[in-house]
UniProtKB/TrEMBL annotation:
Organism of origin: Robertmurraya beringensis
HD domain segment(s): 23-66
A Pfam family: HD
Protein name, per record: HD domain-containing protein
Top-level taxon of the source organism: Bacteria
Length: 90
């Protein structure tokens, strides 16, 4: 059972890599952060927490790549505008 789960997880992560590199990289960062936080808290089964972090955005496999690219572009514009707004208000 555990081997099958590992294989399925690897397949999903590989699919995410092929579908959208930005989401893949984000998911790895979330997994790493959760692993470090769980280790810091001395939680059991930190590997499962790591995997859950990696898989937290797996639903994006169902969103067309072009739509994801547009979303990230708009979010970067939004973040830049927030930064500029903050500078203007300072």
């Amino acid at each position: 059972m555990a081997k099958m789960v590992k294989t399925d997880t690897q397949q999903l992560v590989g699919d995410l890599f092929l579908h959208d590199l930005t989401t893949y990289q984000h998911s790895l960062r979330v997994g790493d952060e959760l692993f470090r936080f769980a280790s810091y808290l001395h939680l059991e089964d930190v590997e499962t927490i790591y995997v859950l972090g990696i898989l937290h955005d797996i639903g994006k496999l169902g969103i067309p790549h072009a739509l994801l690219c547009g979303f990230y572009y708009k979010m970067s514009l939004f973040k830049n505008n927030l930064s500029l707004d903050f500078l203007y208000m300072s």
